[in-house]
């Protein structure tokens, strides 16, 4: 099985799990709703604490404090719901009679909130440092930030499964994720990227249909309707790919940690997809 074929097989396997347990898609939906609420809570007062002059908005110390809090809480919200998703995806993959549920997932993530908050703080800090490097070093900074960011995402890809399924803290989870990455490194990168690539293709297909419809029908009202539908389509694809990625994380963790191939992934040649290094 070639790399592209295996990537597609991993995508299809994740899709089968989602089709069998459609409720897993609620976690990205709830994350989006919570993210909007957090934005309203922090960004609205951040605007009013700034000095607003003609054509210029100058942030104050209070504004920076609110923005920093927004950055941390937003990261925590995204990580919390992703962790809840992973816990229930693992339950679905085990197939031992347990049924995944939204309440069960939120409760599982709630029990691990200190570690999740710590991971959110570390992730937000790394992202901020990389962004600072990119802004200050220009083109070279973009290259350095991109390479370091990619390495960071790959080596910490299994942090949340380790937190949720092993009960480790932040430091232990990072070390464990790096260990699992080294132990079963291979075309997992291709498989993970495959979900994003297919999501990108689906997005483009939807935009193409809407663009064609707008061109054929014409009219200002049609353009605005197509723009609204494009926004909705973007949100739906994001929910879809986020859910599949969470399922894939759980499956990859089980194989990397226990050598267990979940039933829905039995058709994928994991032995070749995750070669020992």
Q: Can you describe this structure?
A:
The longest helix is centred in the middle third of the chain and has 43 residues, at 113-155. This protein starts with a helix and ends with a helix. It has 277 residues and is mainly alpha-helical. Strand 1 (51-53) and strand 2 form a beta hairpin. Strands 1-2 form a two-stranded antiparallel sheet. It is built from ten helices and two strands; from the N terminus they run ααββαααααααα.
Physical arrangement of strands within the biggest beta sheet: 1-2
Largest pleated sheet: 2 strands, antiparallel
Q: Beta-strand level of the residues, as a percent range?
A: under 5%
Helix run count: 10
Q: Structural class, judged by helices and strands?
A: mainly alpha
SSE string, helices as H and strands as E = HHEEHHHHHHHH
Based on Cα principal axes, name the global outline.
Answer: globular
Question: What keywords describe this structure?
Answer:
single chain; 277 residues; mainly alpha; two-stranded antiparallel sheet; 10 helices; 2 strands
Protein topology:
Layout: H1 3-20, H2 26-49, E1 51-53, E2 56-58, H3 61-94, H4 102-111, H5 113-155, H6 159-166, H7 170-183, H8 188-217, H9 220-258, H10 270-273
Antiparallel strand pairs: 1-2
Helix pairs in contact: 1-8, 1-9, 2-3, 2-9, 3-4, 3-5, 3-6, 3-9, 5-7, 6-7, 8-9
Task: Give a short overview.
With 277 residues, this protein is mainly α. The protein has helices spanning 3-20, 26-49, 61-94, 102-111, 113-155, 159-166, 170-183, 188-217, 220-258, 270-273, and strands spanning 51-53, 56-58. It contains 10 helices and 2 strands.
């Amino acid at each position: 099985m070639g790399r592209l074929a295996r990537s597609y097989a991993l995508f299809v396997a994740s899709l089968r799990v989602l089709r069998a347990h459609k409720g897993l898609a609620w976690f990205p939906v709830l994350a989006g709703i919570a993210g909007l609420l957090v934005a309203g809570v922090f960004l609205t007062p951040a605007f009013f604490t700034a000095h607003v002059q003609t054509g210029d908005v100058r942030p104050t110390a209070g504004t920076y404090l609110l923005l920093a809090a927004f950055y941390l809480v937003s990261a925590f919200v995204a990580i919390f719901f992703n962790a809840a998703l992973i816990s229930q995806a693992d339950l679905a993959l085990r197939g031992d009679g347990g049924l995944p549920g939204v309440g069960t997932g939120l409760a599982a993530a709630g029990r691990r909130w200190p570690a999740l908050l710590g991971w959110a703080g570390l992730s937000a800090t790394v992202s901020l440092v990389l962004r600072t490097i990119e802004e200050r070093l220009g083109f070279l900074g973009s290259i350095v930030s991109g390479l370091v960011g990619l390495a960071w995402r790959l080596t910490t890809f299994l942090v949340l499964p380790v937190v949720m399924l092993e009960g480790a803290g932040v430091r232990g989870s990072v070390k464990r994720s790096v260990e699992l990455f080294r132990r079963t490194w291979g075309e997992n990168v291709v498989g993970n990227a495959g979900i994003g690539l297919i999501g990108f293709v689906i997005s483009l297909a939807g935009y193409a249909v809407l663009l064609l419809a707008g061109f054929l029908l014409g009219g200002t009202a049609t353009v605005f309707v197509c723009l609204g539908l494009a926004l909705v389509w973007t949100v739906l694809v994001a929910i879809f790919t986020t859910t599949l990625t969470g399922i894939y994380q759980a499956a990859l963790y089980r194989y990397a940690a226990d050598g267990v191939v979940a039933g829905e992934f039995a058709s994928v040649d994991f032995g070749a997809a995750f070669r020992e290094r």
